[in-house]
Every structure is written in C-alpha cells, then in structure tokens.
C-alpha cells in the first residue's frame, strides 16, 4: 500500500540450505521476465535453521519486513521444508499479502524446485507487468534510511551535516527518515532525547540506549569499544566524537518514534531504529523497516549496498575521484567553500533522480546483500 521507487521481484531464502537454489532461480527467471519488471534478485543468508526463541523471531521479522518493502512488487519465499523458519509462519506475519504477488514453496515438496521457482516468478512478473505503472508521487511518500560507515574526521563536517539538511527538508514535506546504529549514538543521545515529540518517545529512546549498553556489558565488552581502526586512521579519536558527527544525519527534526529491531515504520518524520552499527546489519534493518532508499556517508569508502538503492556519499573529493564505481555523490566541495544550501539542493536532486528510476552505484554493480543480527542460541 505504500509507494516504492522500484518494482522488483525478490526471491527470499527461508534457510541457508537453499541459498544456491534461490540464486539460480533468480538468475534464470530474470532472463525470462526481462523488461517486465525492474529486476529479479536473490536474498540469501546463513540462518533459518536451529534457531530458538527471540533469535528465530528476529530472523522471521526481518525477512517479513523485507518481503513487505514497497520496492518489492513481487516476492517468492523458498524454503527447504524441515527448517525452523517455516514459510507459512512468515506468511502469517504478512496478513495483507496479495497471493498474486507473494508466492511460497518448500523444495522438499517440489518435483523440480528450479522449475517450480521459475514458474512462480514468471507468473508474478506477468501480473506486475499488467497491473503496475510508474506515476508521479509527492516527496512525502519517500522513506529514507540514514547511514554512515567507514567514517573519517570529515564525516561530521561535510556528508553527515548534509544528510541532516535532507532530513529536515523531507521532514518539513511530510516524509520519513530512519536513523539507526545505536552504539554510534552513545555520548550524543541527549541531543536526540531533547527532540522527542512526547514523554513516551523520550522514555523509549532512553530505554533503547540502556538496552544496548547492557548488551555490550552482558557479553563482557566495553561500551566504548569504538571507534574502529579505519575510523582512527581517518582521524576520529573518541566514541563521543564519532557519535556527535553521526547524529548530525538526523538534522534538527523531531523524533517521532522508536522502533525495535524487526519493527516496520509506523509514523512519518524521524524514527530511531534499534540495530547495531555494522553496515550490512543496519542497512538491512532499515530496508526491513520500510526504507525504499538509503543515504550512506563514508570517508573510507565501501562498495556495500542492500536490497534498496544505497547512495554512497563521499566526505572528500579525493575519495569520490578514486572510487567512482562506489560513490554516488561528492560532499567534498563543501570543504572548498560550496555553500551548504547549494550542496543540499545538489543532493536533493540526486535523490529525486534515483527515486525516479536512475540506478544507484550499488544497483549498477549488483552490490546487494543482507545481514541478520544473530544474538541467540543455535542448536
């Protein structure tokens, strides 16, 4: 029911045992439906079997969230048959799923699992080609995830403040942004708490921060086990310095909601999402929450992308020049005197271009992956 900026089919593995099968189905089906949809892509991971309790529930919640991302116009769930993460339970978590767009089967029950999978994708694609059209939508329909990875000393000076301007512009237009990486809020959480829209949201932010600190302590790790070696080499000296730069991605927007890991977006405006700073885990969590596009600032560079367009913003021009196959946008001119308003307009138009169909670097180079936050017992 929400607006997507892509119309793709995602073939999702329910368990790691079928990862290669899922990849073959997606690759072979893509050749048969070329031109009908924006793409057919496999979603694989090593989990789904031998998980218990909340750990299994988290895997299921993330996969269900991805299956309901608006950029997925169609979804095929592929199970093995004997795993803990049964596809029927995932379908139960998606009560509004359209059976013409969401299909599922277990390989142990299929005669030829490749034929079964390819046939399902072709049927979904035929329906999408008949029913779906790109049409103009207001920017208030955008849901953008905010991310920084491989940060350097310039992250808090160029790219992150630029994202803050985009957050404020989108917030004023009625759109939605998602900020996560909770360990990289440590030391700057008061900035976000002061902007909570209610006492309930204020309390939820504090509770989220405390849960994450207990998570570190419970595993015998120091809360200040940050910044990373790459951050230090890039000039960041303390966790607080990293956090004060990181939260600038949220601009000055009020915090309207706090989401748990695996939760989906509930309210417009700026939502905080409980997930770690790990690039693949956090981008996956934002896509599962409903982000249709992610803005990813970096001072060190990375090719990583998740299942939705993942625009990489370089903090310095030399990085953008060295890694043009990774970087979508250069925030470096701010260091040379480009007015922040001019840079904001430049990025805003780049975002609208991608929302309108222009492919991000991660799409052009097929850099798509997910990662799940594993925190429980494995049988």
Average pLDDT reading: 94
How are helices and strands ordered from N to C? EHEHEHEHEHEHHHHEEHEEHEHH
> What does the overall shape look like?
globular
- Beta content: 5-15%
- Distance from N terminus to C terminus (CA atoms, Å) equals 38 Å
Tally of helical segments: 13
Helix-residue proportion: 25-40%
Helix-strand makeup class: alpha/beta
Largest sheet: 7 strands, parallel
- How are strands sequenced across the largest beta sheet? 7-8-6-5-9-10-11
The total beta strand count reads 11
Low-pLDDT regions: none
Q: State Rg.
A: 20 Å
Keywords for this entry:
single chain; 379 residues; alpha/beta; four-stranded parallel sheet
Structural features, described:
- The chain is 38% helix and 15% strand.
- The protein has 13 helices and 11 strands.
- The strands form 2 sheets. The chain has a 7-stranded parallel sheet, sandwiched between helices. The protein has a 4-stranded parallel sheet with strand order 2-1-3-4, sandwiched between helices.
- Strand 3, helix 3 (87-92) and strand 4 form a beta-alpha-beta unit.
- The longest helix has 20 residues, at 199-218.
Question: What is the topological layout?
Answer:
Blueprint: E1 8-13, H1 19-32, E2 40-43, H2 53-67, E3 72-79, H3 87-92, E4 102-106, H4 113-131, E5 143-148, H5 159-172, E6 176-179, H6 189-193, H7 199-218, H8 229-233, H9 239-246, E7 255-259, E8 269-273, H10 279-289, E9 293-298, E10 310-314, H11 317-322, E11 329-330, H12 340-355, H13 361-364
Parallel strand pairs: 1-2, 1-3, 3-4, 5-6, 5-9, 6-8, 7-8, 9-10, 10-11
Helix pairs in contact: 1-4, 2-10, 5-12
């Amino acid at each position: 029911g929400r607006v997507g900026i892509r119309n793709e089919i995602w073939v999702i593995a329910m368990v790691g045992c079928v990862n290669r099968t899922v990849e073959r189905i997606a690759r072979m089906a893509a050749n048969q439906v070329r031109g009908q949809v924006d793409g057919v892509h496999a979603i694989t991971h090593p989990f789904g079997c031998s998980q218990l309790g909340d750990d299994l529930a988290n895997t299921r919640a993330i996969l269900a969230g991805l299956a309901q991302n608006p950029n997925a116009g169609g979804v095929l769930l592929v199970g093995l048959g004997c795993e803990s993460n049964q596809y029927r339970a995932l379908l139960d978590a998606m009560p509004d799923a359209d059976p013409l767009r969401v299909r599922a089967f277990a390989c142990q029950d299929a005669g030829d699992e490749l034929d079964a999978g390819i046939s399902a994708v072709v049927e979904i694609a035929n329906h999408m080609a008949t029913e779906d059209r790109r049409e103009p939508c207001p920017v208030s329909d955008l849901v953008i995830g905010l991310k920084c990875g491989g940060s350097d000393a310039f992250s808090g000076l160029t790219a992150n403040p630029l994202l803050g301007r985009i957050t404020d512009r989108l917030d004023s237009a009625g759109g939605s942004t998602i900020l996560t990486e909770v360990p990289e809020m440590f030391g700057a959480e008061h900035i976000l708490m002061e902007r909570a829209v209610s006492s309930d949201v204020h309390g939820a932010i504090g509770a989220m921060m405390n849960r994450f600190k207990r998570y570190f302590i419970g595993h015998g790790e120091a809360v200040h086990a940050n910044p990373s070696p790459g951050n230090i080499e890039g000039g960041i000296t303390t966790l607080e310095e990293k956090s004060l730069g990181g939260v600038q991605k949220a601009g000055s927007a009020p915090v309207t909601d706090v989401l748990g890991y695996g939760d989906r977006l509930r309210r417009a405006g700026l939502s905080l999402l409980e997930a770690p700073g790990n690039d693949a885990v956090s981008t996956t969590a934002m896509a599962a929450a409903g982000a249709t596009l992610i803005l990813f600032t970096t001072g060190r560079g990375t090719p990583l992308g998740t299942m939705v367009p993942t625009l990489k913003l370089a903090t310095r021009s030399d990085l953008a020049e060295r890694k043009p196959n990774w970087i979508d946008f250069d925030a470096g001119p701010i260091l040379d005197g480009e007015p922040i308003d001019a840079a904001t307009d430049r990025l805003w138009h780049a975002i609208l271009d991608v929302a309108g169909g222009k492919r991000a670097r991660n799409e052009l180079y097929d850099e798509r992956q997910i990662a799940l936050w594993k925190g429980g017992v494995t049988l």
